[in-house]
Amino acid sequence: MAAERTTKGRAPHRRNEEARLAVLHAADDLLVEKGFGGVTVEGIASRAGVAKQTIYRWWPSKVDILLDTLVEDAGRALAPRQTGPAVDAVRRYLRDLARFLTKEPAGRVLLALVGEAQHDAAVAELFRERYLEPQRERERALLVRGIQEGDLPDGLDVDGTWDVLCGPIVFRALTGVQIPKSFVDRLVDGVLGPAKAA
Amino acid sequence: MAAERTTKGRAPHRRNEEARLAVLHAADDLLVEKGFGGVTVEGIASRAGVAKQTIYRWWPSKVDILLDTLVEDAGRALAPRQTGPAVDAVRRYLRDLARFLTKEPAGRVLLALVGEAQHDAAVAELFRERYLEPQRERERALLVRGIQEGDLPDGLDVDGTWDVLCGPIVFRALTGVQIPKSFVDRLVDGVLGPAKAA
Amino acid sequence: MAAERTTKGRAPHRRNEEARLAVLHAADDLLVEKGFGGVTVEGIASRAGVAKQTIYRWWPSKVDILLDTLVEDAGRALAPRQTGPAVDAVRRYLRDLARFLTKEPAGRVLLALVGEAQHDAAVAELFRERYLEPQRERERALLVRGIQEGDLPDGLDVDGTWDVLCGPIVFRALTGVQIPKSFVDRLVDGVLGPAKAA
Amino acid sequence: MAAERTTKGRAPHRRNEEARLAVLHAADDLLVEKGFGGVTVEGIASRAGVAKQTIYRWWPSKVDILLDTLVEDAGRALAPRQTGPAVDAVRRYLRDLARFLTKEPAGRVLLALVGEAQHDAAVAELFRERYLEPQRERERALLVRGIQEGDLPDGLDVDGTWDVLCGPIVFRALTGVQIPKSFVDRLVDGVLGPAKAA
DNA sequence: TTTTAATCGAGACGGTACGTCTCGTCTTAAA
DNA sequence: TTTAAGACGAGACGTACCGTCTCGATTAAAA
Lengths: 198, 198, 198, 198
Description:
The structure is a homotetramer.
Chain A: H1 17-34, H2 41-48, H3 52-58, H4 62-77, H5 86-103, H6 105-119, H7 121-148, H8 158-174, H9 181-192
The structure holds a DNA duplex.
């Protein structure tokens, strides 16, 4: 990750952690306050009290800054929790996803990056590498456990299923439609079958 | 549509249809060739052989131009066809949607506008009014007929169902994943039940 | 004058005199109110309640409009009066010139055209033909009479003398310096000799 | 001068002298080649290989650019030389002035600025401050010395006399009339008296 | 009285230049 | 060597006028 070279294992050799955080937060704040168009490198620099050059030294573009904040935030807010029956874990995860997308500032960052990926193939690639793939990897584990535990059919198309599960939620978020818990529940019931026990 | 005032009823006083089409096509072409960032009013003007002022006279922004092309193209390519069993009509429509999003130039316009809507609330509103709502209205009719003909349950949540059906397809298109026919078919089977007869 | 083609030869009949005057006055007013830069064909048209095309039909450019007003106004205000001793007539004429340039709106038009002639060779030529030469012709008569009546030396360089007489007055007007009567009087005394008789 | 902030006192912090000169020369060239109307900020920028913003950063308008070139050029070409009898020095200065106005490129700049001053009161003021007044101050010294040395009458109206001397020369230059040396000589003889000695 | 031809107002059109904005790079001096 | 500060080339923004070109509507002569 562009932003991590810092105080890693061996030899710090400069780089101001304070400045790095100031930049990430400034970018985040600007996006929430004024939308993606309001996020400019110049604006970030001035709000973070940092020189433009300092930003360009460490991040190739503003998209990379936003990706850094997204990876950090989503790493926390969208970490699948492997407890209870797999289907319940999926349901829990999708509820987290819905909340993240519609309620949290970092959710706006994710949607903005999905948006920007439509405008620029390089962003699309970066977004896939830094967010989509790693996140999907974490998601897979949930379904894989369900298969192993016999709650889900053996031949299940894991990626296809996740697209069917995430798709409607992301679609609603992108089009500004509310996502009640019931929507998520019915979705999970429809796709994975209703809660096993009953 | 902003672009229609032309040769309406009698003769309101002008508007060059040729210029209008040149602008729409130029915008379309630029988007496909260079992405959303490559669509500039100046670029459109020069490619269309039109004065910038002519563009600003009729369209408030480049987004409105793209919306005009989208509405025109989607009106053709995404018109639901009410023939055969309702579920089959839905399946046919979703296949059209998948093809539109992944194969046709106008599909890139749609995705770009979804993207831009994430960056700008005004665009989001416009996009909803000019595309999402009218298109959803046309979609509703498909499911409503299915309910009337007894192929679908009475209490079906029509909008929710459409979000569940479109969501995965749009999500795959947005993330650059292929959409084979089988993906659409399994989706429809899962959500509306497998083809009736068989 | 550019405005005369009308009621020529037989009787094609046409051309709106009202519009012609409205244009001349609008141009005049705009020049006085907002300076030469504020004189635009569009501005004249809108203030005169006239279509742009009507202006272009009768005048090749805004400079021609201003020349029309100048010729009309200067024809009245700067007509040399051939009464009394020639030197007194010259003095009277120069006082008129000073007053015209510094006090009357039409004087602003003259200065503006002198100015524009510095920017555009075609304007310079037009200005010379339509104003400078005819006016100089009228001026010459004053000195020529003085020579004939013996008040002025036989070999007098008429044009050179007029340049020496007008130069300082026009120069002061161009540089925004006051022109008291005494300045004119001393100028005439210095160049043509003090009042003869006294 | 607007252009001098550069390498002043101790720690100027920027300003590209190369760009500054390129702009001045480009403006100068354009004026001579295409007239005042051909001097556009865009044209200057492109010819000077400079960004428009760089021009707007340092000059409020194209007039200020031309004033910079004028002040620099006139400072050299129109510096009065205080040698020999005062009347002779005046004569020499006026010959320089005539040559400057009719032969040198920088003279076209002066005339263009006199012209533009007629169109715009702000330009008139600027022109007075930056050129007319400083130049007049230098001119005064010539006549003042003549008074001190007894070559010129004690009560001489210095500014009025300069207007009478410069007026005819500037007038001829503005109206595109030749200015032979004899014209200047007769002017000086008429106003200051013929060369003392003879 | 009808025709017909030029004028009028209105305003769209292809252009050029405006002055502003933001981009990403480059330069400077201080720490 | 890295910082903050900020000048630089580049180029799009949206606006103002340019001069040309329809368009109906009006008007006055000739038919």
